[in-house]
Amino acid sequence: MDTFPITVSTRRLLAAGLLVLALVALALRHARPGPHSAALAVAPIRVAPAASARSRAAPGVVVDVEGAVRRPGLVHLSPGSRVADAVARAGGTTRLADRSGVNLAAPVSDGQQVVVPRRGAVGSAPPAAGSAAATSGPVSLSSASAEQLDALPGVGPVTAQKIVDYRTQHGAFHSVDELDAIPGIGPARLADLRGLVVP
C-alpha cells in the first residue's frame, strides 16, 4: 500500500522527463540548419564575365598610318579591322588625300604600315600605259589593287595577281622581303622594287 503512490510518481516523473527530452530534441532539430539549407548556404554564385572583360582580353593590332591623314602615327585596332578603320582612327583623310590610291577594304595586321597618298603625289594617280614615272611612287603591298601592282616595273598582270593571292592567303605584308616567296619575283626583281613598295 505504501509503494503504490511512489510507483505512480516515478512513472509520472519518467513520462515527464521523456516528454521534456523529446521537446528539447525537437527544438534542437529546428534550431540547427538542415542538410538542404546548408547546401544552399554554401552553393557558390557563378557570375558570367562581362563582354567588355572578354574584349579586353583579346589581343589588338598596332598599325602605322601615314600620308594624307589628320593624325598620322600609330593606332590601336581590334583584330579583324580594315584599312578604313585604321584611317578613321587616325582622324580620317585630309582634303589632299587620294582615296583611290589606298584599298580601304583591305584587312590590317599587327605592325603594318598604311600610307594614304596625296593627290598629285608620284604614284598616287592611276598610271598611264607605258609610263615609268607613274610607277615610281611607293605602293602598299598590303592594300594596293592588282592594277596598281601591275604598274610597277617588271611586274605584269600575272605577277600582280600572285601578289594579291599571296596577301589573301597569308595576310598583310610585314616586310618587302616577303615578295621573295612569290613565284616570278627573284632577288634581282626584289632589288628593283625596293623603294617603290612598302609593306
Which features characterize this protein?
single chain, 199 residues, alpha/beta, three-stranded mixed β-sheet, two-stranded parallel sheet
Helix content: 25-40%
What is the ordering of alpha helices and beta strands? HHHEEHEEHHHE
Strand order of the largest sheet: 2-1-3
The largest sheet is: 3 strands, mixed
Q: Strand tally, please? A: 5
**Contiguous runs where pLDDT drops below 50 for at least 5 residues:** 123-136
By DSSP (H or I, 4+ residues per run), the number of helices equals 7
Estimated share of beta-strand residues: 5-15%
Distance between the termini: 120 Å
Average predicted local confidence, pLDDT: 75
Which radius of gyration do the C-alpha atoms yield?
A: 40 Å
| Structure classification | alpha/beta
Shape category:
rod-shaped
How would you portray this structure in words?
There is one protein chain. The protein is rod-shaped, with a radius of gyration of 40 Å. The strands form 2 sheets. A 3-stranded mixed beta sheet has the order 2-1-3, with helices on one face. The longest helix has 29 residues, at 3-31. It starts with a helix and ends with a strand. The chain has helices spanning 3-31, 35-42, 51-57, 83-89, 146-150, 157-170, 187-193; strands at residues 61-67, 73-77, 113-116, 139-140, 197-198. 39% of the residues lie in helices and 10% in strands. With 199 residues, the protein is α/β, with parallel strands linked by helices.
